Give the backbone structure.
Amino acid sequence: MFENLAGQRSSVRKEILSGLTVALALVPEAVAFAFVAGVDPLVGLYAAFMVGLITALLGGRPGMISGATGALAVVMVGLVANHGVQYLFATVVLMGVFQIAAGVLQLGKFIRLVPYPVMLGFVNGLAIVIFLAQLNQFKVQGEWMGGLRLALMLALVALTMAIIHFLPRLTRAVPSSLVAILVVTGLALGLGLNTRSVGDLASISGGLPQFAIPAVPLEWKTLAIIVPYALILAAIGLIESLLTLSLIDQLTETRGRASKECIAQGLANTVTGLFGGMGGCAMIGQSMINVNSGGRRRLSGIVAALSLLLFVLLGASLIEKIPLAALVGVMFMVVYGTFEWSSFRIIPKIPRSDAFVLILVSVVTVLTDLAIAVIVGVIVSALVFAWESAKRIRLETTDEDGSRIHRVHGPLFFGSVTRFRELFDPQQDADDVVIDFRHSRVWDHSAIEAIDSLAERYRNAGKTLHLRRLSPDCRELFEQAGNMMEMSVHQDPKYGVVMDYSPRF
């Protein structure tokens, strides 16, 4: 019993310290993404607090961290520039409603359709995006640092990374990222080093977020403006959240609940929009920090969100003194840990199509945004799969009891119907023909039309055709063929095609 109590205390300590580490890393990210979206830094900080807290309490993936993200910010900037921040708040509320609907309809399960090469491309692309985002901290008023100032920044970044890398070899009692931040901050303050700090980005001091219905006109024109943005933001937020959920599942060897996470993300964004936040979704960088620091439960996410609020309310003067170099070093280690370096080793060994998809998704993620990258990756993977499957259809032909038996092997669908038609020559075939679909499966309407067309060709050639082992859905379509064609009912499969083709009149 005492061992269990000691283990629980150790686990709670890890969760609290991990959450505190994440909160420190959230500050510059939330401020930076607020700048990207063109809103006040507190709008980003409030979003990180509210989205992080609600998803930690109600989400489907304990240990995953949510907050304001760059993937959403780059979409918001146009809306804010053209219509103002109140339209952004209204859009975030509607975005949340769409995400709740997606969760209720259990659309989150479709994340399973994302192929592994797309997942690798997502991880690698996002790691590159995180890395590139940190480079902005090496600029002052748009100009790159130089001389001693740059050398000092690089030295502190290197020290932070070294502590994070080597400290776990000595002890895992406290998160190495937190120790690195404290050591580098103490060194900078103790020696009076002239280096950029969080306060150089913006002041993070503020009060509690206030409830307010977005001040936008209640008319159709407003909906016409915010609905397209809300749909795009909802899609990006859910895709990034569910892919991050899948990644954390792999790292922790547990399984999150996708639909529950969709509902939690939606509720969080709806509330955030009503309290003056810019919305958000799961953050792969901060989630990796949390998991690597020992955060596995909801407690770490709750501590991170509440700590962030305390920073805003009470601790702004202290947090603003943290050197940016320390936080950049933490994020560089996140990049190193997130990027799948094994990709370089496996690319020559996997099919060329998978390698192409992996690289394509990575590049599109960097150049555009995550949603487009994943959609492009899934579409390309689906087309490759359809092409490869289309080449698998073939016939096995035998003559039995005066009839010629054609046994179809391979899936019959839109991609393989052309090859299917080419396999038959009614004019040269026997007078009595049997087409057996035991080793095939009819997938869609294109396949049914191809079979119907083939039956018509045999009828015009004066041949008797028997279709066997077709599903009831297929048989209904061919009843009009009458005595010229026989369809066996014995041992027919019970599957259905993708649509119900029975008459509805």
